[in-house]
Design the sequence.
């Protein structure tokens, strides 16, 4: 069976690995220049940031087995410091989030997991798939290239556009995503704490998530320096999504300095990433959008939830479903 996979995030790569292990030919199409989806690593000078997903907490799902036993673990880091909550501008002592849940990253950046997972998979980057032609009876075409089956793993709003003129369109109920502004800050000042991340549990504060990259893993910043990923709340991200980068930086740096101290008001490197479809707030189910007999299968975080291990899980299910129908 020859399968085309649209999207080289965790769901798409999981589907491709599953099918390739079953002896099927797979080609993955990714519109960006690298695979990964929201698993992204950015290097700014001597600072290394995971700008999308900042860690993997696989919670016993298939992704845990894969990263521990099936791909190289040379640069895998188990994050030792916990996540704590912050209340306004202070960390709440003893407020541990997901205490006991193993979290992982990679020394040189979380993108390394995508590089390792993609080994042996044909991934064509820089290619946008505008639509799917054909059907399960006669086969499918992606950009004029023929396939026996197709898996689409983009965020649901993008899936709807891709399938708009398909013979096998789907209904996705009320799936809804929130956007996210992710602000990368490098400081030539040290910072130490008993946590690696702070979370605003009710999304009321503009700083929904602070990941201290230099506390999370070695190699993320020079000695005596601090690397921080500050991810904004849903409300703030929606309000400022199209705003000028200078305004987003000014407001976010102000909030960070109020939380950490005035010495953290002058970063030496800055960058803003904008994720329009960052996290599904309302999902549907895999079974609701995928017929057991169809050879056009939908996967991705809009079907289970916005965590890395769940996106990976839907890709495996999509691959297995096609093999059952082969």
Sequence:
């Amino acid at each position: 069976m020859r399968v085309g996979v649209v999207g080289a995030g965790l769901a798409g790569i999981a589907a491709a690995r599953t099918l390739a292990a079953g002896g099927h030919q797979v080609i993955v199409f990714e519109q960006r220049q690298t695979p990964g989806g929201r698993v992204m690593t950015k290097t700014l000078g001597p600072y290394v940031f995971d700008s999308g997903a900042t860690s993997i907490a696989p919670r016993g799902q298939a992704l845990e087995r894969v990263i521990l036993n099936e791909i190289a673990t040379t640069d895998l880091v188990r994050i030792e410091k916990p996540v704590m909550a912050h209340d306004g501008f202070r960390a709440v002592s003893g407020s541990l989030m997901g205490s006991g849940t193993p979290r992982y990253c990679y020394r040189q950046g979380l993108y390394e997991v995508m590089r390792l997972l993609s080994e042996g998979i044909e991934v064509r980057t820089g290619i946008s798939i505008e639509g799917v032609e054909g059907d399960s009876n006669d086969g499918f075409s992606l950009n004029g290239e023929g396939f026996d089956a197709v898996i689409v793993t983009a965020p649901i709003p993008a899936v709807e556009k891709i399938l708009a003129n398909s013979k096998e369109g789907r209904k996705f109920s009320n799936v809804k995503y929130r956007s996210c502004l992710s602000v990368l800050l490098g400081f030539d000042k040290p910072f130490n704490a008993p946590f690696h991340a702070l979370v605003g549990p009710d999304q009321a504060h503009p700083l929904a998530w602070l990941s201290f990259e230099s506390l999370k893993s070695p190699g993320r910043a020079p000695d005596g320096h601090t690397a921080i990923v500050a991810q904004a709340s849903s409300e703030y991200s929606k309000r400022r999504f199209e705003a000028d980068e200078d305004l987003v930086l000014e407001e976010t740096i102000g909030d960070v300095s109020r939380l950490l101290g005035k010495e953290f008001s002058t970063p030496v490197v800055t960058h803003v990433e904008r994720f329009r479809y960052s996290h599904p707030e309302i999902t549907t189910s895999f079974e609701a959008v995928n017929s057991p007999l169809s050879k056009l299968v939908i996967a991705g975080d809009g079907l289970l939830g916005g965590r890395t291990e769940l996106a990976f899980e839907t890709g495996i299910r999509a691959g297995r479903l096609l093999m059952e129908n082969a």
Remarks:
- The chain has two domains: 1-35+118-174+283-326, 39-112+176-282.
